[in-house]
């Protein structure tokens, strides 16, 4: 029922929320959640933040996905790019972002999430036999008394994909960080806070805009930390099968 419920919510509202307690993970994969979350301890500082800011760490890769068969292949690593119309903070720049670690890529939970997320999207049957480009991002946002953590410094925006998924991997000593959904004319439709590991938000990128409120520390003596795994799915007929060694 979760698949169909989320699919209908996405179709009707452009977003859906699946709390961690309702998110199905096979028992043999549950230990892999903490293993995957530990990978956020090894990210590199985002070098494309403005004014010398250091509130974001990240890694990124792209995957070839064929829905009908479930085939997944790692694509050659390349700089991350968004248009200026989608992101007026860092759009128009080819951003050289570190790739996902081999241990992240080899964690079976990652590929399970990729496939199970797609099962929730209201995709037409004719698009299941063509490849999709899946952009996989690890983000750590850090807030300190001297620097607010900004998950989306660009404000309400699109990711220039068809559908997206946000999985909360960790949240420590943090206030704020509410996920927001906006109409295309930037009217706030709803907001909610991902607080438990594996709380998940889905959105239809061509229907709505999304953003996240800044984070601050609860205890000023320690940083606020918010870790998320974001997967953006773009329908890409003709995408070639590559695999990086």
UniProtKB/TrEMBL annotation:
One of its GO terms (molecular function) is dioxygenase activity. InterPro entries: 2OG-Fe_dioxygenase (IPR018724). It comes from the Bacteria. It holds the Pfam family 2OG-Fe_Oxy_2. This is 2OG-Fe dioxygenase family protein. It comes from Streptomyces violaceusniger (strain Tu 4113).
């Amino acid at each position: 029922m979760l698949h169909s419920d989320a699919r209908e919510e996405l179709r009707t509202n452009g977003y859906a929320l699946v709390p961690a307690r309702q998110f199905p993970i096979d028992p043999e994969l549950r230990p892999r959640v903490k293993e995957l979350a530990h990978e956020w301890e090894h990210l590199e500082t985002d070098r494309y933040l403005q004014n010398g800011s250091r509130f974001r760490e990240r890694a990124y890769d792209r995957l070839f996905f064929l829905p009908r068969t479930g085939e997944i292949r790692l694509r050659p690593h390349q700089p991350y790019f968004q248009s200026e119309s989608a992101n007026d903070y860092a759009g128009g720049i080819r951003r050289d972002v570190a790739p996902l670690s081999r241990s992240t890529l080899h964690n079976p939970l990652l590929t399970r999430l990729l496939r199970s997320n797609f099962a929730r999207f209201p995709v037409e049957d004719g698009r299941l036999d063509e490849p999709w480009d899946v952009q996989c991002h690890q983000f750590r946002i850090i807030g300190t008394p001297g620097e607010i953590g900004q998950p989306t410094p660009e404000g309400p925006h699109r990711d220039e994909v068809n559908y997206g998924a946000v999985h909360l991997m960790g949240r420590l000593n943090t206030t704020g960080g509410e996920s927001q959904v906006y109409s295309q004319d930037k009217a706030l439709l709803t907001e909610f806070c991902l607080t438990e590991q594996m709380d998940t938000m889905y959105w239809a990128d061509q229907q709505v805009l999304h953003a996240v409120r800044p984070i601050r520390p609860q205890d000023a003596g320690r940083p606020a930390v918010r870790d998320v795994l974001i997967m953006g799915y773009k329908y890409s007929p003709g995408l070639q099968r590559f695999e990086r060694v």
